[in-house]
Write a structure and sequence with these properties.
Shape: elongated
Helix content: 25-40%
CATH architecture of the largest domain: 3-Layer(aba) Sandwich
Structural class: alpha/beta
Strand order of the largest sheet: 1-3-2-4-11-5
Number of strands: 11
Strand content: 15-25%
Distance between the termini: 29 Å
Largest sheet: 6 strands, mixed
């Protein structure tokens, strides 16, 4: 299980409190900005953001991890922790899939069908991961056959393999392409019909329920929605 901690500075005063946010890997850049904005408004709060595949994060929460907030890349993983939510989840963003390829698209890939070519090394998210579930749904809808060389535990891992030249192509969210250099996107036919909805909720197992509610308010409010829109996420 690969989870990535961001913004985990050490509290410098006895009055400082920690707010732990579990967020899907595709939210890494956006939540870094929201973390900074929240801490600016709450100088005695240290926001610790844990990123990873939504399925991994949900499993960790079920196992007892003290998350104050969970932001998932699909509703299925939020449903997996529904008994631990302190308030009903709210959809705060949407996202769609795209192909990510080497800059210049040297293999001239045009869609999902090309991923089955013998000369193409492709990677996708594992089926239990939101981007993987959406990829399978889209492939079925388009009648495309996938032949990935590996199935990754998060969309960040898919993006990283293509950016590092370990794969020719991968299926990621449209918002992910800008997070890596040396890659570009190829639009997938029918992708607009397979939309991932991102829910967020405060968690009852955390230690800072009041802070959790205010962080959720930030994400749902004008400032949070503006940051999400600028990163390419769709509105709820």
């Amino acid at each position: 299980m690969t989870l990535v901690l961001a913004g985990c500075s050490t509290a410098s005063a006895g009055d400082d409190r920690v707010l732990t946010v579990y967020a899907a890997a595709s939210l890494t850049d956006v939540f870094a900005q929201l973390e900074e904005a929240y801490e600016a408004e709450h100088p005695h709060v240290d926001v610790v953001v844990v990123h990873g595949g939504s399925a991994e994060l949900a499993a960790t929460i079920v196992e007892g991890a003290p998350a104050d907030v969970f932001a998932s890349a699909n509703e299925a993983q939020m449903e997996a922790v529904q008994e631990l939510t302190a308030a009903p989840p709210t959809i705060f963003a949407t996202n769609t899939l795209t192909l990510v390829v080497e800059d210049g698209n040297p293999l001239r890939l045009a869609g999902l069908d090309d991923l089955a070519r013998e000369d193409v090394v492709s990677v996708v998210c594992a089926p239990q991961v939101p981007c993987g579930a959406a990829t399978l749904e889209l492939a079925a809808a388009e009648g495309a056959t996938l032949a990935p060389s590996s199935q990754e535990s998060s969309v960040t891992d898919v993006l990283g393999k293509v950016a590092a030249g370990q794969a020719d192509a991968g299926v990621v969210y449209v918002t992910d392409v800008a997070r890596a250099s040396g890659v570009e996107q190829v639009e997938i036919d029918g992708a607009a019909a397979v939309v991932n909805s991102y829910p967020i909720a405060p968690m009852s197992g955390g230690e800072s329920l009041d802070l959790a509610a205010s962080f959720v308010d930030l994400v749902l409010g004008d400032a949070g929605q503006r940051v999400l829109a600028e990163a390419g996420f769709g509105s709820p």
